[in-house]
Model the fold of this input.
Amino acid sequence: MKVLEAVSCATNYSQRIYISYILSSMATRSRKEEKQYTQHRKKEHYHKECIFCRLDTGSELVRETKSYRIIKNLFGYSLWDGQGVTDHLLIVPKKHTDTLSALTRDETIEFMDIVSSYELQGYDYFGRAPLSNRKTVVHQHTHLVKLDRLSKKFLLYTKKPHIRITK
Done:
């Protein structure tokens, strides 16, 4: 069912809230950005080594600590929680792990120091659980997303890959 049909069929408040949830969780990238990301993932599929383990820290490196690299997301989101994204970074452990629970105590403290320093700069943070079916890279990484704090008044998604019209 297309979103427009779903919205017009929503007759009660809970249906509208559910559709609002669907809209807010879809199309974090524009159609063009999503297509580029999909093509990149197809190329990466042929490598045996993890993309974050063989990370070439060229222009995308923002900061490096003892156990982590903070990098610019090459395929960052342009929309998150119905707001525009002004910056999208990733916190990536230098050692390969798929979960935060595998970190040592010192690595955990260092991680929380990094997150809290970016939180103070206005970044939201987000990560997926190891078994999430939406996680595209197994190597644990945490998204740092800085929003423009301007809610989009109108979002229209028509098909997948999404065509997104915002106002």
User: Anything to note?
Assistant: The radius of gyration is 18 Å. The first strand starts at residue 61 and ends at 64. Residues 90 and 137 are 12 Å apart (CA to CA). Residues 1-10, 12-27 have pLDDT under 50 and may be disordered.
